[in-house]
Write a structure and sequence with these properties.
It is a single chain. With 366 residues, the protein is α/β, with parallel strands linked by helices. 42% of the residues lie in helices and 15% in strands. Strands 9-8-7-10-11-12 form a 6-stranded parallel β-sheet, with helices on both faces. Strands 3-4-5-6 form a 4-stranded parallel β-sheet, sandwiched between helices. A two-stranded parallel sheet has the order 1-2. α11 links the parallel β11 and β12. The protein is globular.
């Protein structure tokens, strides 16, 4: 399995790798190692490469060359690419070794916010996506909107495997003890990147004097958001934890009173996103405030597990938080959502899709 991050905090990839291992496969996750990389937890085999470049053209070129060499010299029965940025090396190695190729898409890479104002770079990734996606033997994605997009654009079918945490990954706190300062805890967990609404959350704290904001994660804008928070009169009510391991995050999530899942409508990737954080908060019994974007708003409205922001921005965010905090929540409020967001169902779709590709390959080789 190939991924361009450092694996340690990519719970989706680790979850898929663990599931395939439990099904009998010998899985190796190939990623990269950064100076501040955390150890990779769990029993999944992992190879992390130290690269000269950290971003840009140099990074993607170096990563794919190194990945292809690794794949060519190591035995494998199947190549598993996570997102289009790993696909060039995976596709070439799969062809040369005559092995089946899985393409797992968790976002529309050509439509990420970082490429909105870079038309030439966006066009490059779009053409690569259009060319390589149909050539995968198995195609997987995280939500119906992405599957429909590829069906309409390229005429290919994708298996939807939602990114949902098994319940044992999150420790539920049935009765939360009030914090020593009696402030309600708002939790943002995830990358601190462009378009993630972290700036909204910081600014909204001026309208939420009875709340404390915890921002758990790292990213390109982490230092900028720290400076933004420090410049406010309510800086003492904002905490940055930095990057956390999956186990640390599992302990933190249930301590929140409200889970924040905000995205700006910047490109189709965010517009159609179904962040894994929704499943994490549901598993922990934490009500949500989400942006009014199709997949996440549908989940919250269908199961009545929180509030959908009426508009982008800190004022709308504060209003949604007020509405959520006015209600008393219990485990029963999340029962229907938990029954639907069941990893035992999702993982079967994953193992069936990968197993079918391996079976077909074995039949062809006989």
């Amino acid at each position: 399995m190939a991924v361009t991050n450092d694996v340690a905090t990519d719970r989706r990839v680790l979850r898929h790798a663990a599931t395939l291992s439990e099904a009998g496969a010998m899985v190796t996750v190939v990623g990269r190692r950064l100076r501040d990389s955390l150890p990779v937890e769990g029993d999944v085999a992992c190879h992390r490469m130290r690269l000269l470049f950290r971003r840009g053209v140099g990074f993607y070129a170096e990563y794919n060359i190194r990945l292809m060499l690794y794949l060519l010299v190591h035995r494998c029965d199947l190549v598993y690419a996570n997102d289009i940025d790993t696909m060039p090396a995976c596709r070439m190695a799969a062809c040369l070794k005559r092995k089946p190729l899985v393409m797992d898409v968790h976002e529309l890479f050509p439509e990420v916010p970082e490429l909105v104002d870079r038309p030439k770079v966006k066009l490059f990734w779009q053409r690569l996506d259009d060319r390589l996606m149909p050539r995968a033997n198995v195609r997987i994605t995280v939500c119906d909107s992405l599957a429909q997009y590829y069906r309409q654009r390229l005429g290919v079918d994708l298996t939807v495997v939602r990114n949902i945490a098994p319940r044992h990954e999150v420790v539920e706190v049935e009765k939360r003890e009030p914090a020593h300062d009696n402030l309600k805890v708002l939790l943002y967990q995830g990358c601190v990147n462009k378009g993630r609404g972290v700036d909204w959350a910081i600014d909204a704290m001026g309208l939420l004097p009875d709340c404390r904001l915890v921002i758990a994660g790292g990213g390109d804008l982490l230092e900028a958001m720290k400076l933004r928070a420090q410049a406010t009169p309510w800086a003492d009510r904002i905490t940055f934890t930095g990057r956390l391991s999956p186990d640390q995050l599992a302990q933190l999530t249930p301590t929140a009173d409200v889970g924040l899942v905000m995205l700006e409508d910047m490109g189709l990737s965010y517009h159609m996103a179904l962040p894994n954080r929704i499943g994490d908060f549901v598993a922990a019994g934490v009500p949500l405030v989400v942006s009014d974007l199709p997949e996440m708003a549908r989940a919250v409205r269908l199961f009545r597990i929180g509030d959908v922001m009426e508009a982008p921005g800190p004022e709308a965010l504060a209003s949604s938080v007020h509405r959520v905090l006015q209600r008393r929540w219990s485990a029963a409020d999340f029962a229907a959502a938990r029954a639907d967001m069941d990893w035992n169902v999702e993982k079967t779709k994953l193992t069936d899709a990968v197993g079918a590709a391996l079976t077909k390959q074995q039949t062809q080789n006989q």
